[in-house]
Write a structure and sequence with these properties.
Strand order of the largest sheet: 8-7-6-9-10-11-12
Order of helices and strands: EHEHEHEHEHHHEHEHEHEHEHEEH
Distance between the termini: 21 Å
Shape: elongated
Length: about 325
């Protein structure tokens, strides 16, 4: 069996779970960013396609791989895979749900703390020999503890639930919005309360995004969304940059419509210095903390994800149905 892999061979070697199926497959690697021609030249006859979570598999690629039976995201996201084209061919599309929940939850809380404690600006002040000035200025301005914050989670999947657990330890009051409200038992388990999205935006000190990108959610954070938030509120995005209207968020930061943003993801990827959320006026730059879409890429995540991917390849070899199928096959 041939497996075409879009990703770093060193990563696959490092996190190889050494399952029996690995001895029964031939792995062909292509770097992330390879176009369809390069992928097909390397492995048009592959039975399985394993993809970096932000790499595409469009209808044209799928149509040109006659033996393909499985497309597997290395991560949780699968929005760059043409689910309908795969479903029409009876090809399984799978992901690794929950495998990065703990990691991304930690990143979400880290961004909240960095903004509240002005960590990046403080780091720079110490290096510049301006520790006392920075300290005095921020004592006068006031620094909030995370535990005093009301936090709203938009979406309530695995990552949001893991985030809720961490926030409960800090003492935060936590609301959530999800299209389908959870059961009273689950709300009690995570110490959360449901609110309509408009109310959640209006009452929360921190709004944290935990949604997949769909036709319904793309651009969700627009001018209207941001206008509902408090001028003292913070926006956290560890989900996908596509959820945010970049120009709307830029305007909100410059105008003071919101107080700041913590961004692990910015659309498009890879981002460039001229992105409107990066090329900000100097007076606004301290309002934003960035991280390089690294929230979920811990050692523990890759160990879980790669074990699950290769377990599903093993199921395919055995003639069994893989789990975590997302396209209805």
């Amino acid at each position: 069996m041939k497996v075409l892999i879009v990703g770093d061979p060193a990563r696959y070697e490092k996190f190889d779970p050494h399952l029996p199926c690995r001895d029964q497959v031939q792995c062909i690697f292509c770097p992330r960013g390879s176009d369809n021609a390069a992928l097909l030249s390397a492995g048009a006859d592959a039975q399985a396609l394993l993809l970096d979570a932000i790499s595409p598999a469009d209808a044209a690629l799928i149509a040109a791989m006659p033996n393909l039976k499985l497309i597997h995201s290395e991560g949780v996201a699968y929005n760059k895979i043409d689910l309908e084209a795969a479903r029409a061919r009876g090809i399984y599309v799978c992901n690794n749900p929950g495998s990065n929940a703990a990691a991304v939850a930690e990143q979400s809380v880290m961004l909240m703390l960095c903004l509240l404690r002005r960590a990046v600006a403080g780091h720079a002040a110490v290096i510049a020999g301006e520790q006392i000035v920075f300290k005095e200025t921020n004592m006068a301005a006031g620094i909030h503890e995370l535990g005093s914050m009301t936090v709203g989670l938009v979406g309530f999947g695995n990552i949001a639930r893991a985030t809720a657990r961490l926030l409960r330890a800090f003492g935060c009051r936590v609301y959530y919005y999800n299209r389908t409200r959870r059961s009273p038992e689950e709300e009690a388990e995570y110490a959360v309360e449901w609110l309509p999205l408009e109310e959640l935006c209006a009452v929360c000190d921190i709004v944290s995004l935990h949604l997949a990108v769909t036709a319904e959610t793309a651009g969700l954070v627009d001018r209207d969304f941001l206008a509902r938030m408090k001028p003292t509120a913070l926006l956290i995005n560890t989900a996908r940059g596509d959820l945010v209207d970049n120009l709307a968020l830029r305007e909100a930061l410059i105008s003071g419509a919101i107080a700041g943003a913590g961004l692990d993801t910015i659309h498009p990827e890879p981002n460039t210095p001229d992105n409107p959320l990066i090329d900000l006026p100097p007076q606004v730059q301290d309002k934003v903390v960035y991280s390089p879409h690294i929230g979920g890429v811990t050692i523990e995540f890759f160990l879980r994800a790669h074990r699950h991917m290769w377990t599903n390849v093993g199921r395919l070899l055995a003639g069994e149905r893989p789990d975590c199928v997302v396209n209805g096959v």
